[in-house]
Write the structure tokens for this entry.
Amino acid sequence: MADYKLTYFDMDGGRAEPIRMAFHSAGIAFEDHRISFQDFMEMRDGFRFRCVPILEIDGAAVTQSNAMCQYVGKMAGLYPDDDLQALYCDEAMGAVEDLMHAMVTTFGLEGDELKAAREKLVDGWLSVFLKGLNELLERGGDYFADNRLTIADLKMFPLTRWLMSGDLDHVPTDLVGRLAPRLAEHASLVASDPLVVAYYESRK
Ligand SMILES: N[C@@H](CCC(=O)N[C@@H](CS)C(=O)NCC(=O)O)C(=O)O
């Protein structure tokens, strides 16, 4: 078995979370290397694209979280075999990436600047992406692809949970429920999946 080391921020969310859950589900041991923001600033020049997550496989670094999701998702049986279903899975993961990029533009802002940026985000790209992701669920049923839990659901769920948590200033906690009711239901479904429950039990 290869030696896996996944480097990311010390948070139960973000781009590394679906990869951690997939490793856990596959029963594949990996080093869950969690770093502080200060660590990141010191290390970032050594990262190929100056960002995380980084997956090292036998010491060789790989970047791009969706590629990692596909790779580990396949090993965990969480990625569709069927090409069309794989396309649906990838579409959802790509949309989540784009939404994350839109959200990041508001990070680091404070006070009135943050409020204005978040309100613009809520009325603009956040609404667009929530409605679009809701549509993907209307197409796919309860899940994004393959009529079952895949790595795309594991990528979406931590973000939905965050958007509904109240931890993001000026993002109303009922926004997801109002604009994307299927997505809110999806978050509950994924949260109660035995795979996800077992992963968070293992984190206690
Ligand atoms: N396309 C990359 C994007 C990675 C990315 O933007 N990572 C963020 C953390 S979630 C990051 O490292 N941000 C710090 C920075 O850009 O300085 C991927 O999917 O892995």
User: Anything to note?
Assistant: The two ends are 26 Å apart (CA to CA).
